[in-house]
Amino acid sequence: MLIITLIIALLITHISLGQERKDYNINTIAFYNVENLFDTEDDPLTFDDDRTPLGKDVWTLEKYQDKIKNIARVISEIGLDNTKTAPAIIGLCEIENLQVLEDLVSHPLLEKFNYQIIHYDSPDRRGVDVALLYQRSLFTLDDSQSRRLMLYEIEDPTKRVFTRDQLVVSGKLNGEAINIIVNHWPSRSGGEAKTNYRREKAAHLNKQIIDSLYKKDPYAKIITMGDFNDDPFNKSFKKVLKTSNNRETIVAQEMFNPMENLAKQGKGSLAYRDSWNLFDQILVSESLLGSRSGLQFYQAGIFNSHYLITLNGQFRGYPFRSYDYSGYTGGYSDHFPVFVYLVSEQ
Questions:
Q1: pLDDT tens, 133-164?
Q2: Residue 289, C-beta contacts closer than 8 angstroms, at least 6 positions apart
Q3: According to the 3-state scheme, what is the secondary structure of 74-125?
Q4: pLDDT digits (tens, 9 = 90+) for 307-330
Q5: Contact, 255 vs 211, CB < 8 A?
Q6: What is d(CA 319, CA 269) in angstroms, rounded to the nearest whole number?
Q7: What angle, 0 to 180 degrees and rounded to 10, lies between the N-to-C axes of helices 98-105 and 61-77?
């Protein structure tokens, strides 16, 4: 970590090419599955009954406020050591509604960052959505839209599978145009093989969005992030999105997946049955790899600070989640956040 910090410090303050000195901005772009950030009210239109005071989880106001505090702490610290601020932009999933986002950004740990909210309600049965927060001083919003994923059961093509929308946001980071897509693809509930087609459909929609952005601007700078419920090696990435993990051979308009190399090292953002998965990923377009001026991808990582890790019991070493089989734990999430650093010349 010390070596990384020193390298970034050099990038920010003392990069010299010949006799020319260049100063750099550095921004953190992050994503976090916050594990069922629900309010305490019963929404009659969704299956949120467990997360109410009278529900199975006995989800009280005290627990809700504790969860808000925990998530606010995590967000406030992602990238802090290197950028001296919280993420410029962070995508979120498993949030119930606009109200929980407003409670989150107004928490004292986040209030000073003046986060703005982009959120649309999606048709997910449990009522969970994706959202994006951005620091107003660093990012200027130009446009946002929610793109619906239409899914149907293979066995019964008339039966709709209701899932999360994909959020598309366009704006300017430090004055430069960039596009962000926030995802929460269909889960593996019911079995990975049986549900593969759902995530591949989600990948096709993602590819359509990316292609449409390139149609407007062949050199568009694009980031697609989320909990994809697939690893970097799965068909949804390698065959549908056609991602690459090789900066040397990547071609124009391909998506670079830095998380694939992390996965090859055995790193993950969530654990299940004593094995790690890297479902939480951030992909960047080839145009962010430094072949052109402006914003450039520098590094990707998993934010797994010590307090986010379960210290004992059967889930020792796993992410310290809010609930386990014994009930409420006071933890954070069953996922670690992920992030990338983008640098740009001042």
A1: 999 999 999 999 999 999 999 999 999 999 99
A2: 247, 250, 256, 296, 297
A3: HHHHCCHHHHCCCCCEEEEEEECCHHHHHHHHCCHHHHCCCEEEEECCCCCC
A4: 999 999 889 999 999 998 888 999
A5: no
A6: 8
A7: 60
